[in-house]
Structure formats: structure tokens, C-alpha cells
Amino acid sequence: MTTVLLADDQRLVRAGFRSILDGEPDLDVVGEAADGAEALTLVRDLRPEVVLMDVRMPELDGLEATRQIVADPALAGVRVVILTTFDLDDYVYGALRAGASGFLVKDTEPMELIHAVRVVARGDALIAPSITRRLISEIAGRAAKPVPNSRLNALTEREREVLGLVAAGMSNDEIAERLVLSPATAKTHVSRILTKLDARDRAQLVVLAYEAGVVTPGWLG
Fold first, then answer.
1. HTH luxR-type domain location, by residue (predicted)?
2. What is the pLDDT of residue 147?
3. Which of 7, 90, 117, 134 has the fewest CB atoms below 10 angstroms from its CB?
4. Domain 2-140, CATH
5. In angstroms, rounded to a whole number, what is the distance separating the alpha carbons of residues 56 and 132?
6. What are the percentages of helix, strand and coil residues in the chain, rounded to 5?
């Protein structure tokens, strides 16, 4: 059973997400918060595996609430998924920097919502590639000029190649197909990269890859 907390100041949004998620036998909505401060309190009390976190909320916004969750060692098992709309793309890169594990658009299809929660709960991907790639294109345009990261020196050439594909929004299966590997081997590469770079999840790998220039889609000067 995957436990989920909903944090959004719109009651109707929370009710809609709850009705979708609670209809699944392996998902359980354990709480709802109407602002970031309440979300933090409930996360510490309930320790959900996944938090669906709105960006714009009273008291404490979703980005700061995410930063505080990620910074708390006692909440290491909590994954945050940011709820966003494409007119809020300015927040996307900040959310990744804050430690968010993925993104959902608020008008997402029910099956995409369910899939995203399951995927993030197991730490296996950065949400559906169809969403990820559109968001990454925005992240790339807003990231600062790349700065060399000495931690990348620990990676093999193959691991750097895999890191670049993770940053492009590819799943393990897609990486395996691209590099002519088995899915298990691709997953092993990603796990080793996470360990070597001391990254929380794939979302952090995306940040590291763009900041270090592993992926360079056209940097601002």
C-alpha cells in the first residue's frame, strides 16, 4: 500500500485527486493539507510515501515546503511531486532544485496520475516521459551556465552516457533500447550513478546533468 498526502489550497482539486487515488487498491490518501505549513505538519505526523504538492499555497508555498521535507533526514522516505500548470514553468527548475521527485499537470489524465504516484513511490522515474520532456525543455532554458562538477569524475563513460539519457527524460526501458542493453543492466547503471553522485533520485540526476553541462541544449550566456 502506497500512502499519499494531498497539499493544495483548492478543495475541489484535492477531492478530485482523492477520488481517483482512493479507487485503487494499492493507494491510500492518508491526509489533506490546504497550505504548505499544514502540509509540513502532516508529513511529519503521517510520513506518507508520496506528497502531491501545489506550488502556490498560503502560509508556505510548495517549493519551500518541499525544501524543508527534503532537508529533514527523518523524512528521507518521502517523495514530493509538484503540481503545476504550464503557465507556472518559472517554478519548475526551482522545484527540481528544491528536491522534488517529479511533476504533474493539474489537468492530467486519471491513469497518468495513478501511474505517476506509483512510479515516484518506487523511486524509479521522473514521471511519464511525455510530461518530463516538455518540462525539461523549460528547465534547460532557465538553468544557469554549466559549472564542472568533480563528482562526475567517478562515472565511467557508459555511466555518463546513461546520465545524459536520464536527463533527456528516458525511462530505463528506453535507455536499454537506445544503448542495446537489457532493462536490468540499464537499471543497474542508473542505481550506480545515483550512488556515486549521492543523489536522492532521478530528479536530482536531471539537475546535476544540466548544471554540469552533461546535457547542453542551448545555455543562456
1. 148-213
2. 67
3. 90
4. 3.40.50.2300
5. 20
6. 55, 15, 30
Q: Select from 123, 91, 121 the least CA-distant residue to 21.
A: 121
Domain spans of the chain, in order of start: 2-140, 143-212
- pTM of the entire predicted model: 0.73
The secondary element (H helix, E strand) that includes residue 103 is: strand 102-105
The pairing of strands 50-54 and 2-7 is: parallel
Residue type, 2: T
Q: Beta-carbon neighbour count of residue 141 at 10 Å?
A: 13
Q: How many whole angstroms separate alpha carbon 72 and alpha carbon 76?
A: 7
Q: Cell 503540481, residue?
A: 83
Q: Is residue 123 classed as helix, strand or coil in its secondary structure?
A: coil
**Residue 192 one-letter amino acid:** R
| pLDDT at residue 74 in the model | 92
What is the C-alpha to C-alpha distance for residues 61 and 193, in angstroms, rounded to an integer?
31
CATH number for 143-212: choose from 1.10.10.10, 3.20.20.370, 3.90.79.10, 2.60.40.770. Answer: 1.10.10.10
Which residue is it, cell 541544449? Answer: 217
CB distance 99 to 66 below 8 Å: yes
User: How wide is the angle at C-alpha 117 spanned by C-alphas 114 and 120, nearest 5°?
Assistant: 145
